[in-house]
Specification:
The structure is a homodimer. The first copy, chain A, is of the alpha/beta class. Chain A is built from nine helices and eleven strands. In chain A, strand 6, helix 6 and strand 7 form a beta-alpha-beta unit. At the A-B interface, helix 5 and helix 9 of A face helix 5 and helix 9 of B.
Chain lengths: 240, 240
């Protein structure tokens, strides 16, 4: 039966998931569009499918047909979408290969781009500080191009994370725009962990102090810094 | 004298500059904030300064004090700004070093990021196809972090641009996700020109056919492609 009212209790629950508070409370998040739906299906995390079309038939997963105004209210995209899914948040797993730590990344587009590049360059795990922007922000999901389903993301205090990585024989690389080894001269082993800092302030001093090496990407003096997503991606490219 | 009305003819002119059509017609564009104002002053392209504060005193440049509601209407930023300037569009100049050609880049954030990385990695000139997003779009300017004032941007049909670059002994590199030389194996001379393609479709076939070499960045098969700004930046990093 088609849902027609914005006052429907299901609709109200779904709309709440646009806010981080409710995503955290319910351990759920929303995705939009066919491409992400396919990625989420492969991962087995789809709980409910909502669409303006009747076409969907995914065995065992509850399907809800809704009208255009409900879809418009639920969507974060200007151009709208024809399908939205409620998904379970992704499980954290053991770390096996190269790692990236994110220290207070604030821009959801940067986080999504970092995830996309991390998968491209075979980074196994991203450890995000608790003050990093939400992984399940719609802009993060969109700019990850679905790659968030293909990487292990762990939320943890970075000082603790560094200690446990060191116990597993990881070498920790900090980034610093002024000091350190030229990235082109750096050779990474097969257990490297690189810390990418906040867009305005870089990597916190307390974390830099815990690093085995500091690295930098040489750039023209005309340009103050690289975008955080760009810097991260160039380092991943060199680590790969 | 403070301007208080949104109906003021000056205010109406300024607001029109938020649209590409009027920027093109008047050869002017708007920038927001102190940081961009400083960069534009160095470049000598500031025509008018508009602010809610009385503080500004820049010799010879007309200054207009306005109220908060005018400033809010003019600003493209959610958090607002205290200063907006009308600037002359930047002049195109002769090409001297490494070059990047942009084939139909559509995302203003990507264009801005490409400009920022290009300056960082000493690319001299960016040639944009006529169907690339406007250089003077507020999001492009913002994500360039003011670096658009430090690079030569030329708008030109890319087939013509390639012909004239070849006449100047440039080597033309296309990007292609499937075929071509591994970027890590590519050695660029000091007159290299690289073409970055549209976000969805890559570099047009007709342009690829005119290239001396095609290059690609090796990535995991899990990830379909890199973000265009990321791909461009990694190539600039290797060309530098």
């Amino acid at each position: 039966m088609k849902i027609e009212s914005l006052q429907n209790s299901k609709v109200k629950e779904w709309i709440k998931l646009k806010e981080k508070k409710y995503r955290d409370l319910n351990n759920l998040f929303l995705i939009e569009g066919d491409h992400l739906l396919n990625e989420a299906m492969i991962k087995g995390v789809v709980r409910e499918i909502i669409s303006t079309d009747k076409l969907f038939d995914f065995e065992g997963i509850p399907f809800y047909e809704v009208n255009d105004s409900i879809m418009k209210k639920m969507s974060n995209q200007v151009s709208g979408t024809n399908v939205i899914c409620v998904c379970e948040k992704l499980r954290e797993r053991e770390i096996i290969g190269n790692v990236c730590l994110l220290d207070n990344i604030q821009d959801p587009g940067n986080l999504g781009t970092i995830i996309r590049s991390a998968v491209a360059f075979n980074i196994d795990t991203i450890i995000v500080s608790p003050d990093t922007v939400d992984l399940y922000n719609d802009k993060t999901i969109r700019s990850s191009e679905g790659m968030l389903f293909h990487i292990n993301v762990i939320k943890q205090n970075l000082e603790d994370a560094i200690d446990s990585l060191k116990n597993k024989d990881y070498k920790i690389y900090g980034t610093n725009v002024e000091n350190g080894l030229d990235l082109k001269e750096t050779s990474f082993g097969n257990k490297g962990a690189v810390i990418i800092g906040n867009e305005g302030n870089g990597v916190k001093k307390a974390l830099q102090d815990k690093c085995d090496s500091l690295i930098y990407i040489p750039i023209s003096s005309t340009c103050e810094s690289l975008n955080a997503g760009i810097a991260a991606s160039i380092i991943f490219y060199e680590m790969n």
